[in-house]
Write a structure and sequence with these properties.
The protein is an alpha/beta fold. It contains 14 helices and 19 strands. Bound molecules: pyridoxal-5'-phosphate.
Length: about 450
């Protein structure tokens, strides 16, 4: 056995394990009272409304949902400060993949919180960081992709910024990028120019030159490929050497749960390679949600992409890249990478997904999708005028209701919230209602219950 540092001895101290057990016991006891959807407690109403009002004033605008959590939940259920209990099928837009108060996640967080610093950063990282880097890179290289490096950062959009900076530096003096119509990449000054939504860049000075190609259309496979290839060729030949990167979301999230295609993506990557344009894959929403750990693995693009950005489910955010795109000193750095609690929770969750029976054709993610899909298909057969779909893949499930009407879909999500289910809207023309299912916590029976509430709400809103 190799010599242990004082820190290792401290973290192996049985009292740390005891503390984990004690908190897990308290959690199990209290969360056992959370058994299903529950209406708000009238006695808590006044105080809750006061909190919501104050909070809205502090933050300069009303919350989308009247949601302030009490700090506990059980599986896919969460308790709010008004005493209500709801099914969380949006999970902070795809963050709480193991639901609420998961004992394994809490134990990992306790261990991370027991270390000497609150936040790790580029100048100071503990031994949990290299362990997590290895796990993520090993997973990314599962099918021989050959990624060499990873840079950890504080948000999904910063992972995108860092990938863009590395691509621009490598392709300097290139100054343009290409992206898919309806894509979402984040909201910094640079990236809000790529995200294809006018409202998100209203009033901002242009910082990047961006051209768009249409996303894959499953109803026109050959046509999609032909259009994408010919538009890219046109752009790249019109402005030779000016393009640094092609930004790809493989399954459009905010855009409305449109799923891409292997042949389509490979054709795009081939054109990019020919013209020396780097390929950036944004997996901030898709990471851990398909039957493969990464969506680029699902679409077999292991050898085709230069960067992969992850966030949300991964708890920490990161840019994964190859040695040939390694930045020169000074280009990327950041004070904060992440907290010890998040780094340890990330390790726990990613390891569970990799080794706990989630992936593959027979894995839990496919089972979740199949159950949700069959429930929504039944609703579609029963109410063809109210609901279409489902759409999406794995733990990303969407539906179109009321023919994709934006106002009615939003109203539906608010009523669904009141009835006990958290969802969210995505896309425009059509607007869709989407669910980011907490695969690490959900039981298949939860999906049935959620679909019963969806049916009740559909009928209430029509
Ligand atoms: C595909 C995609 N990329 C990037 C982002 C930005 O991530 P963040 O909000 O953590 O900056 C998001 C967030 O929704 C996303 O869905």
């Amino acid at each position: 056995m190799s010599k242990k540092t004082i820190g290792e001895q401290y973290l192996d101290d049985p009292r740390i394990e005891q503390a984990q057990k004690l908190i897990q016991e308290a959690l199990a006891e209290h969360s056992s009272h959370i058994t299903g959807v529950k209406a708000a407690d009238p006695e808590l109403k006044e105080e809750y409304e006061k909190t919501l009002k104050e909070f809205s004033e502090y933050r300069g605008g009303k919350l989308f949902y009247d949601y302030v959590g009490s700090g506990i939940g059980k599986g896919a259920l969460v308790e709010l400060c008004d005493g209500s209990v709801k099914y969380d099928f949006i999970t902070g837009i795809g963050v709480h993949y193991f639901g609420h108060s998961h004992p394994g996640v809490v134990a990992a967080e306790i261990k991370g919180s027991a270390t000497n610093t609150t936040m790790s950063g580029n100048l100071q990282q503990n031994s949990d960081s290299p362990k997590l880097f290895k796990l993520i890179l090993d997973q990314a290289n599962k099918y021989g992709a050959g990624f060499d490096h990873m840079f950890m950062t504080s948000s999904g959009v910063m992972a995108a910024e860092n990938a863009l900076k590395m691509a621009f530096q490598k392709r300097s003096p290139a100054h343009r990028v290409v992206a898919f119509e309806k894509c979402f990449m984040g909201r910094t000054m640079a990236v809000s120019q790529i995200t294809d939504k006018a409202a998100y860049r209203k009033g901002l000075p242009p910082t990047l030159e961006v051209d768009y190609i249409p996303f894959y259309d499953a109803n026109d496979h050959e046509g999609s490929i032909k259009t994408a290839v010919s538009m890219l060729e046109k752009y790249f030949n019109r402005h030779p050497g000016d393009y640094a990167a092609m930004c790809m979301e493989l399954i459009q999230g905010e855009g409305g749960y449109f799923v891409g295609n292997e042949e389509y993506f490979k054709a795009i990557c081939d054109v990019c390679k020919k013209h020396e344009v780097s390929v950036i894959v944004d997996e901030v929403q898709t990471f851990m949600r398909t039957k493969e750990m990464f969506a680029f693995q699902y679409f077999k693009l292991d050898k085709h992409v230069d960067f992969v950005n992850i966030g949300k489910n991964s708890q920490v955010c990161a840019t994964i890249y190859r040695n040939d795109h390694k930045p020169q000193p000074g280009l990327i750095s950041q004070t904060f990478t992440s907290s010890g609690a998040a780094i340890n929770a990330a390790y726990y969750m990613i390891n569970e997904i990799a080794n706990g029976g989630y992936l593959g054709d027979e894995g839990k993610i496919e089972k979740i999708h199949a159950r949700f899909k069959s429930n929504l298909e039944k609703l579609n057969q029963k109410y063809p005028e109210l609901i279409e779909g489902p759409y999406g893949i794995g733990a990303m499930v969407g539906m179109t209701i009321y023919k994709g009407d934006a106002a009615k879909s939003k109203d539906f999500t608010l009523k669904l919230f009141n009835n006990g289910v958290l969802s969210f809207i995505a896309g425009s023309s059509p607007t869709r209602v989407r669910f980011l299912v907490p695969a690490g916590a959900v039981e298949l029976e939860d999906i049935d219950k959620v679909c019963e509430i969806i049916e009740t709400t559909l009928n209430e809103c029509k």
